[in-house]
Amino acid sequence: MQKGFRSAITSSLTNFRHQLSYLNALPQLTILGLITGCLAAVLIVSFRALIELGTSLYLPNSEGFETLPFYLRFLVPFAGAVIIGIIFQFLPKRSIRVGAGYVLDRLYNFQGHLAKSNFWVQFFAGALCLITGQSVGREGPAVHLGAGAASGFGKVLKIPNNSLRNLVACGVAAAISASFNTPLAGVIFAMEVVLMEYTITGFVPVIMASFAGALITRLAFGTEFVFSVQDIAITSLTELPFLLVAGVLIGLLATVFSKLMLLKNPLHATPIFIRISFAGAVTGVIALYLPEILGLGYDTVAEAMLDHTEVKLLTLILIGKIIATGVSVNLGMPGGLIGPTLFIGAIFGAILSFFAHWAYPIHASGTTFYVLVSMTASLGAVLNAPLTALVTMLELTNNPTIIFPSMLVVVISCLTTRYFIGDQGIFVTSLKSQGLIVKSTSFENDLRRIGIRSLMNVKLVSSPYKIDHKKAIELLEKRPDWIVLNELGKTKRLLRAADLARFLEDAPNAILTLEKPIDLLEVPGKKLTMPPIHEQATVLEAHLLMKSESVEAVYVQNPRQLPLETEILGVVTRDDINNYYSV
């Protein structure tokens, strides 16, 4: 009975995986999205709790780095960097690749399969970064952790790669949602920055995952918004020309910030320990005089909104943050850049407010207005994700009136950075500088969305190369489309059943009645050589395999191959792929 139950479970899972290989597997993906969202959210809540626990050991709150004694402002970030550097020095180089860029690389070049070792490195090293006040954000680690949780869950279930891709996006959405308490921004970020496309099959599971992420983080940390502001709107439309100029300036600032992070690393040949330690030392030296640059800096942003900081000090903080974050990210510190991007935008917005009040002494909007608009434009410009920036700011502030002016400024800032950097955003541009490609053609995107099982032809029979006339008739009685020519230790080939039928019809009866076997390799017709491909593969993987091997077909392997089961689950030809795409 137990054996029968196990067999039923195995059969159900196999059927479930087969359904997921199709483009319209929306109900199945939605269920997986919900589970993935819960897993990712619990992980992010644990990550945030670890950071808060660590900072509570020496700070009055997680944002109180300004209260540190003078010497600790240097010692804390430097010591943290040294510890991270030592850990990284003894780890394999492949295990220390972390962050959103790593997720994009694995998603587009490795079908969404993320390594476990990198996952745990990101969790603990990322937490140590934030506990010791490094000038980085928690969003990069959150993206990696959410994607890693989704990838691990998908691999446990052995789901096809086309669905694993959607599952990774679900994990990212839930992680952003849980990290910021921004469910809609999590969805848009996953679609605009990670998947780089908008489809119903992608949207629905991602929405469900992001909902789960927001629900769990609200249960753990409450529903308080990151920035509590009053209802703020533009005071006068006469400010629009100034906002146009502000958009250009923010775009230039985002360009400088991005270029610093993308700058060719002068220490690339030195050990990772030296690079990370040097980044910590730079942060520590700046923090001696500008402790505001340490950590997330949301308390400094709040002070800037209230117009409690002088322009001279704001300018120094801005320059210090750009240098500290740019150097840290460039040298491999395992933290994010979204938080620092928002911080830089906020400080620059407070500076812009000063000039706005000089230009419009009567009608200028408040400092908080310029801080929020600048944060939106800065985030959109650096990520090349204007919609993500707008929705993020809407949810962070619960202030819809800020969207109208922000739309203008974010468009101008994005156009500015596109002129100087390109239209791919910081993550893709960074990968491109390393020789890694994550962009795809529409043809490749279409083939990536479906699993090989959804396209495979199962109307086939296996046969040795040489058979007699009776066996040939028996093969055709099964009405197959294909005959797999299979000899032990030899390459598998494919013959159309119609070619064998035509041969039997055309051959003289005298020849067929002889005892001489029929050599199927000599039957007129094209014989297709077939390499194997895994059942979890996408149709794009099959297309690329055919291209690299210069063949016209592949066969889908049966990984379990129980007794009485065939080694081949089905076959896919180049014509099958072309016909699917042209429909």
User: Structurally, how many domains make up the residues?
Assistant: 2
Principal-axes geometry comes out as elongated
Q: Rg to the nearest angstrom?
A: 29 Å
End-to-end separation in angstroms reads: 46 Å
Question: Looking at this structure, what is the CATH superfamily of the largest domain?
Answer: Clc chloride channel
Largest sheet: 4 strands, mixed
What is the structural class? mainly alpha
How many E strands?
A: 9
Instruction: Report strand order across the widest sheet.
Output: 1-3-4-6
Unreliable sequence segments: none
Highest CATH level, the class of the largest domain = Mainly Alpha
Beta-strand portion reads 5-15%
CATH topology title of the largest domain: Clc chloride channel
CATH architect. name of the largest domain: Orthogonal Bundle
Q: Please, what is the oligomeric state? A: single chain
